UniProtKB/TrEMBL annotation:
InterPro entries: Seed_Dev/Stress_Resp_Reg (IPR051886), TGA_domain (IPR025422). The lineage of its organism: Eukaryota, Viridiplantae, Streptophyta, Embryophyta, Tracheophyta. It holds the Pfam family DOG1. One of its GO terms (biological process) is DNA-templated transcription. Residues 5-226 form the DOG1 domain. GO terms for molecular function: sequence-specific DNA binding. PANTHER family: DOG1 DOMAIN-CONTAINING PROTEIN (PTHR46354), PROTEIN RESPONSE TO ABA AND SALT 1-RELATED (PTHR46354:SF1). It comes from Turnera subulata. This is DOG1 domain-containing protein.
Length: 232
């Protein structure tokens, strides 16, 4: 039976292929808005396709993570460089505001105010989730857990193994809950930002996100290739 790492890794590679095709559509759809409705309708169609694509990713991720959450905290299907950018297994929700600032230049004052409110709320939630994961990590280093781990390592399992399994499963469940909350924040933050933007602005933002993801993937692959060449 294939591992979660293998099955989700295959899914992710296919997802990236589709991502590139959607990025091409985004770039084609970015054009001066016309007076007619056909151009706006086309923009909304592409936006819906891209958001549905991300929805597929998080749905598949949720199913796979429920089987092996630890794999998603350091995903082997990503390059080492990509993994250095992760926060709780994926991009940090507030990163969308950096992309927005660097790509969308025609925000109105009203839009800026609404987005700032979302940004503040997002940062508060990020801190809460960072603290929650830190508490999980601290519990792994707690004396009670380490004591069980040492006894397990010495194969002194007389009555101890069930306790060890129970503790580990409890920690994994807590990690899963934190990661699920983090994914929920990622999705809700993007959704809240998109609600503020016009279709044209949303296209630009989504294109910037797709280009950034493709770029760090390419950089990571190039670094791996250079490391392999140096090693040989």
């Amino acid at each position: 039976m294939a591992s979660v790492s293998e099955t989700f890794g295959n899914f992710y590679n296919s997802w990236l292929t589709r991502q590139q095709a959607l990025l091409d559509q985004l770039l084609l759809a970015i054009a001066p808005e016309s007076e007619g409705s056909s151009n706006v309708d086309r923009q909304k169609q592409v936006i819906d396709q891209v958001l549905a694509h991300y929805k597929d990713y998080y749905e598949e991720k949720a199913k796979a993570a429920s089987e092996d959450v630890l794999t998603f905290l350091s995903p082997p299907w990503l390059t080492p460089f990509e993994r250095t950018l992760l926060w709780l297994g994926d991009f940090k929700p507030s990163f969308i505001f950096r992309l927005l600032a660097g790509s969308v230049e025609d925000l109105t004052e009203e839009q800026r105010g609404r987005i700032e409110q979302v940004r503040v709320e997002t940062r508060v939630m990020e801190r809460e989730l960072t603290d929650a994961m830190a508490r999980v990590q601290e519990s792994v280093a707690a004396p009670a857990f380490l004591s069980l781990a040492r006894r397990f390592d010495r194969h002194i399992i007389d009555g101890e193994l069930p306790n060890m399994v129970e503790v580990v499963e409890g920690l994994k469940n807590t990690m899963l809950q934190v990661m699920e909350r983090a994914d929920g924040l990622r999705v809700s933050t993007v959704g809240s930002v998109v609600e503020v933007l016009t279709p044209g602005q949303t296209l630009v933002l989504l294109a910037a996100a797709g280009q950034f993801q493709a770029r760090i993937r390419r950089w990571g692959s190039q670094r791996d290739a250079q490391s392999s060449a140096t090693a040989t």
